[in-house]
């Protein structure tokens, strides 16, 4: 697949289907790209599609099937968009740290593929606004899906969700009252079943919305 070098070719690239409900275009929007007029276009479209397909099929589709619609807040970033965000303190890590994360089209420092999207689960955001603990969703994902990392933010219980070839399996948060690391390999709470944290979730949520 060639690098999109025109509006038409980028439009066509955006039509690439990653999974049943998600297309590449869903992941290309960036406030940094939009506001500062920096094209958010991959250097390696094939790798971006390959990594994004895993993120969607392994993580986003099961979340949507369980909880209803998933809202994408921030996902793919080109190297130029991400670096601009890092240099100008716009909440972007350095490119070297974002390879295999938000920069889908470059392997990480160990040579592995990965992809991250910052998402909101609207159904859970409503519960969170009523006082639900963000850890309920975090533990459900931990127990049910092959994620690599989860990182939670205070607004809307949005979180960075990463798929990776060699998953780390750790959860962190910026949310007050639970800021820091929730779990990682070797921690006492990492193994076992955590359903006591989310046993209040209704069954077939997506069918009730």
Question: Quick summary of this structure?
Answer:
The chain contains eight helices and six strands; from the N terminus they run H-H-H-E-H-H-E-H-H-E-E-E-E-H.
What does this structure look like?
The protein has helices at residues 7-14, 31-36, 45-67, 79-87, 95-98, 122-129, 135-144, 205-208; strands at 71-74, 114-120, 149-152, 159-164, 170-173, 180-183. With 209 residues, it is α+β, with helices and mostly antiparallel strands. A six-stranded mixed beta sheet has the order 1-2-4-3-5-6. Strand 5 (170-173) and strand 6 form a beta hairpin. The radius of gyration is 17 Å and the shape is globular.
Query: Which percent range describes the beta-strand content?
Result: 5-15%
Q: Write down the Rg.
A: 17 Å
Distance between the ends: 38 Å
Which of globular, elongated, flat, extended, rod-shaped describes the shape? globular
Q: Average the pLDDT over all residues and give the rounded result.
A: 96
How many domains is the backbone divided into?
1
- What's the total count of β strands? 6
Number of helical regions = 8
Unreliable sequence segments? none
Q: What structural category do the secondary elements indicate?
A: alpha+beta
Strand order of the largest sheet: 1-2-4-3-5-6
H and E order:
HHHEHHEHHEEEEH
**DSSP helix fraction:** 25-40%
Q: What's the story with the biggest beta sheet? A: 6 strands, mixed
Based on the model shown, name its key terms.
single chain; alpha+beta; 6-stranded mixed β-sheet; 34% helix
């Amino acid at each position: 697949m060639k690098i999109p070098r025109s509006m038409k070719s980028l439009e066509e690239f955006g039509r690439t289907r990653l999974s049943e409900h998600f297309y590449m275009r869903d992941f290309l929007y960036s406030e940094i790209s939009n506001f500062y007029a920096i094209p958010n276009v991959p250097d390696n479209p094939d790798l971006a599609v390959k990594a994004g397909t895993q993120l969607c099929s392994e993580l986003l589709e099961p979340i949507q099937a369980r909880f209803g619609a998933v809202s994408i807040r921030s996902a793919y970033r080109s190297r130029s968009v991400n670096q601009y965000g890092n240099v100008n303190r716009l909440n972007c890590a350095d490119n070297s740290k974002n390879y295999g994360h938000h920069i889908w089209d470059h392997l990480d420092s160990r040579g592995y593929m990965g992809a991250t999207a910052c998402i909101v689960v609207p159904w859970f955001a409503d519960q969170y606004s009523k006082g639900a603990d963000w850890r309920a969703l975090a533990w459900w994902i931990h127990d049910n899906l092959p994620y690599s990392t989860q990182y939670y933010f205070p607004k809307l219980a949005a979180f960075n969700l990463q798929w990776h070839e060699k998953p780390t399996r750790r959860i962190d948060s910026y949310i007050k009252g639970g800021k820091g690391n929730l779990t990682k390999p070797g921690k006492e709470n990492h193994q076992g079943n955590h359903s006591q944290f989310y046993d209040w979730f209704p069954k077939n949520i997506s069918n009730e919305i």
